[in-house]
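ZP: hey, is the manganese (II) ion complex queued? I don't see it on the tracker
AM: it wasn't, my bad. submitting now with these inputs:
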Amino acid sequence: MPYAQHYSQHIARLCDIYSDALTLSGFGAVLLHSGSEQTYFADDQHPTFRANPHFLHCLPVNRPDQMLLFIPGEAPIYFQVIAPDFWYEQHITLDDWVACAFERIPLARSTDVTTHLGPLLSRHGIDLAALAFMGENTAFGKGLGIAATACNPPTLLNTLDYQRACKSEYEVASIRKANQLALRGHTAARHAFEDGGSEYDIHMAYLQACGMLDEDMPYPTIVALDEKAAILHYQNKRRESGANSQVLLIDAGCRVNACCSDITRTWTRPATSPLFKNLVEAMEAMQTALIASVRPGMPYPDLHRAAHEGITNILLGAGICRGSREALIENRMSTLFMPHGIGHLLGIQVHDVGGRMKNAQGEIQPPPEDYPALRTTRMIESGQVFTVEPGLYFIPVLLNPERNTARGKLIDWEVVDAMMPLGGIRIEDNVRVTDTGVENLTRVLI
Ligand code: GLY
Ligand code: MN
Ligand code: MN
């Protein structure tokens, strides 16, 4: 199995990270809890379960009430809870490469963990008062006798969040695979669009080609025809035929071993407006150049600023804006057309943690005042995985208020009115930073 060696190294690295984090935070051990299922208000149904990301980072088992115990210097212990049940399937299948990384203790109820915790901790001279708990269900942790102050202690979480930015080979292999699967879906989606499919048809073609269910997606797919492409997280799936559509913007990923991909493509048809097609081409070229510029030691906001320079040039070149380059920059015209950040860290969560962390102590590097939406402000480092996703949209709620302003004089409204029904463009790839540059995990042959 290709993950086997990578995974044992991943766990060894995590053991070191957890040992250091425990020492720094003054705890002797930590119990990670995957979470508990919760029902909707006044209902017996529950949303799809998604485990504590720190738990998934260690163990790709997306199931409630599972636990992992980290004691420095020891292999992690997995308390595998399989309750006797005839309503739901409770069996958990572990790949061999996962199973052999842990000592596994099967339990019929999660509270049975108490019978093991005391002896395990005392064998290592650790008092229960030195046990930290990590997970959403702190009531469960407190029920085990863990103090409220030891539940999700910020010092421990800050170190773990900060370290998550740099990925192990196991995570990179998983994200690469999640890219390959998603690309199969993107190809099928493109064909469904070319065949005149509706947003719903395109979504279903995507899932089918990936072999996934909606609940397996790292985030709800964004399948936007024409003007809907201007809604950044467009969530609907229209059933009307797309036979006359000119543009498909599809933002969709996959999950492998709980690791995400996050890919956006913008497709046109032969009859699509040539101006829009040229814009797509220019955006693709700019995105490629941005990725090629990524280097360790570069502040991530520099990439964002470079994207805005590129958008400014494209707006001028396409005749969407007029005036001098300086006037466009001074009036921040590009922010009307790209209101989101250039990207974000990617891993167990699609918007992975720690993007604005300055250090493992939890100091925050806020976004630049002129770009408050930027999710990533930290220094680019070897081993990080993030997205690069420039966009250029014709968003009525941003543009229309400018129609009669001084700023609006820098816009050619005839061109904008012609482009608004086509929505917009986003091109998004996932990259891994290397010691000397960057590897694009999305542009691979499959
Ligand atoms: N798919 C959401 C994003 O690109 O951030
Ligand atoms: Mn993204
Ligand atoms: Mn995306």
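AM: back. The radius of gyration is 24 Å.
ZP: great, adding it to the tracker
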